[in-house]
Amino acid sequence: MTIQEWLGEDNQLGIDIWTKKYQQNNETFDEWLDRVSGGNDDIRELIVKKKFLFGGRILSNRGLNKEGRKITLSNCYVITPPEDNIESIYECATKLARTYSYGGGCGIDISKLSPRGAKINNSAKETTGSVSFMDLYNLTTDLIGQNGRRGAMMISISCDHPDLEEFIEIKSDLNKINKANISIKITDDFMKAVINKSKYTLSFTREETGEVIEKEVDAYEIFKKICQMNWDYAEPGVLFWDRITDWNLLSKDEEFEYAGTNPCAEEPLPAGGSCLLGSINLSEFVTDNRMFDFVEFEKTVNKAVIALNEVLDEGMDLHPLQEQRDSVRDWRQIGLGIFGLADMLIKMHIPYGSEDSLILCNKIAHRMIDEAIATSAELAKKDGPYPKYKFDAVYNSEFFLTNASSDAMRLVDNYGLRNSQLLTIAPTGTLSTMLGVSGGIEPIFANYYERKTESLHGHEEYYKVYTPIVKSYMEENNISDDSELPEFFVTAQTINYEDRIDMQAVWQRHIDASISSTVNVTNDFTVEDVMDLYMSAWSAGLKGVTIFRDGCKRTGVLSTNSDHSKGELGRGEIIKASDKCIGKKRTLRTGCGTLHCEAFFDPETRELREVYLSKGSTGGCNNFMIGLSRMISLSARGGIDIYAIVDQLKSSGTCPSYAVRSATKRDTSVGSSCPVAVGEALIAMYEEMQNKPISAKKKSENIASEAKCPECGNELTFEGGCNTCKNCGYSKCN
User: Fold this and answer.
1) I want to staple 227 with a disulfide (CB 3.0 to 4.6 A). Which of 253, 430, 530, 568 is the partner?
2) What average pLDDT does the structure give for the chain?
3) Given a cut of 50, is residue 5 above it in pLDDT?
């Protein structure tokens, strides 16, 4: 078999993904199957039939250790949280770097670090706070390469920490912490205080000194601030921590403790824990008469659990750190999940979120966890339970009692469990795109996407590219326009968020880990709506959820119905700057002195036309600024929106000289380098040129329209919790 035969001759995107991400050393498709299956014929067959795929790290890396490569088979890890001292803080950065170098992503919790203003016995006299060290971990993530990509990271903090408000607001500056997702571990007590609109005490006790730092806040206003930031910037995410700790196989094990989550939040893990992923494609279990094949599905669950345990054993020595090898050996956690859910429902003519869909998914998920428990028990019979296994702890957990059938209970009673964690639902962004099906538990994002091409006449043209399941249905039923599709074609753009929450809740009842899930909402979704959504998610028993509002200030969203003709220039056209342009000036303080920034705006449109930058000196830096100003000017006169220009300037990172001066003299302009400071100044001057501040809607639309894929330059879709490119298959999550 060839890759073309497996994915289809017309699936060039899928072929490109496989070639770029998973093929090694020009191996054939059959050679790849042999390597990835590890000699397991059952798994080889399931992959060929597209019923199961390992996580991306396994598909790419399995077997490469035989070539001497130091590369992990686990997607992600949770690093032991740093203790409240400088040695531990920097040791944590070292652990991050080493893990990234092996290809793993990382989660880290900073709740043990002292809040801003806590007394310390060194030259600083008081600490800069837990949030300040996020810059260190963000920089580490940015520096360590992974074969053309950068590592993924999740930074979390407890809702009880006095630095909570600073943490909530950190991503309002799009230049800060741009290499990590962030989440808040929210407790039931906090949510009850929100409901009652009562005061809530943030508290931290320094172990070294006994100093207690407390801050009383209005729980409702804090919750509203979290939701406002989500409305504006799609972060921070929320982790309902009590549900995470109480709804799993280890909830009664006093020795076990979750330390944080992986970057996509579907895997809560102990210190040093890793997630070893694989997913079942539900769309391949629909029969010709539109029924779900439960018998074949349960067989696949059995084979997948066995296969993940084989990979776990094979990769035991490939974890970067000793704490990771110890954790994996002691707890043996795996993460079997699903994708293609939306495609399955469409094939069965069942609307996503309907009562029928919830009943069906509840049955599938229940069968899945029961079979996974039974298989893990059978493996324990053969190879023994995981080393930290305690019969009473597992057998008395509410999750086990709710989900295990009498047959599965009997097996566990006799043999124990080989794994302490079994099921999770990852985003599967790249995997699902490669196969042309929906990711995770998400509905299909849209019926179609718009692709841009340059015509023979020298101008851009846009055309519809239908989602594979939509295209297939339209061809089979002679439908020429997606407006004619039946009601069971539900998309992320049209579904009611309550239906979306209900679907996730059904699956979470039977998932012992968690679910990576992003609810896509329309631009007119209000902050109050976000508050209602998160309150509903907590009440429904979800372990976590994020939202992504179409057109929010965070970049990376694809608009499916934008007006491409509005204000566009013809190819190669450059606007001339009028002699009547209005000039504005800022004098900036940078790491190595003064920087003069002059900006000139069109008197009618008030759009940016020219920029002049001068360091007031000669040499390399000044010459660089002259070149930068010319490129900014050319971009502005070429019709590129100022927010898109500034977004690029803000992605330039940190200058050492800037950082030193900022830390010592504290007189630098806002930013972390000269380009960032210039960007901030340009926005300030631009908004002064307006009769009134530009509306949030207009600003966000401009930013969104310029969001590009870092690999091919096409527009991105925020789908299934990940920035995904439908042109080349790039996904931030894989």
Assistant:
1) 530
2) 87
3) yes
Range of the domain at 657: 582-705
Token reading at 454: 């340059």
CA 363 to chain centre: 28
Triad 80, 81, 86: Cα angle to 5°: 115
Question: Position of tokens 């809702």?
Answer: 159
Beta-bridge partners for 479: none
Which position has the token pair 């204000």? 567
- What SS3 state is found at 239? strand
DSSP H or E segment with residue 399: helix 398-403
Q: Would residue 123 count as lying in a domain?
A: yes
Peptide bond into 351 cis (omega under 30): no
Specify the number of domains making up the chain: 2
Q: How confident is the model at residue 569 (pLDDT cuts 50, 70, 90)?
A: low
**What backbone torsions phi and psi does residue 547 show, to the nearest 5 degrees?**
-120, 155
pLDDT of residue 591: 84
Nearest to 429 by CA among 337, 527, 298: 337
Angstrom distance (rounded) from CA 441 to CA 499: 12
**Tokens 């029969």 found at:** 287
418 in Cβ contact with 326 (< 8 Å): no
More confident residue, 201 or 653: 201
SS3 content of the chain, % helix, strand, coil (to 5): 45, 20, 40
Q: What is the pTM of this model?
A: 0.78
Q: Which of 246, 261, 284 is the last residue of a domain?
A: 246
pLDDT tens-digit readout, 670-706: 888 899 999 999 998 988 887 644 333 333 333 333 4
Residue 180 is assigned to a structural domain of this protein: yes
DSSP for 589-617, written as a single string: EETTEEEEEEEEE-TTT--EEEEEEE-SS
Q: Which of 160, 158, 203, 202 is nearest to 182 (CA)?
A: 158
Domain boundary among 196, 229, 246: 246
Confirm if 596 and 677 have CB atoms less than 8 A apart: no
What per-residue string of b and e applies to 420-452 under the rule 16 or more CB within 10 Å gives b? bbbbbbbbbbbbbbbbbbbbbbbbbbbbbbbee
- Alpha carbons 110 and 79: distance in angstroms, whole number: 11
Give the end-to-end CA distance of the chain in Å, rounded to a whole number: 26
Q: What is the DSSP string of 432-499?
A: HHHHTS--TTPPBS-SEEEEEEE-TTSSEEEEEEE-HHHHHHHHHTT--SGGG--TT--BTTTS-HHH
* Long-range contacts of 189-193, Cβ-Cβ distance < 8 Å, separation of 24 or more: 190/159, 190/160, 190/219, 190/223, 191/223, 191/240, 191/535, 191/538, 193/219, 193/220
Average pLDDT over residues 131-136: 94
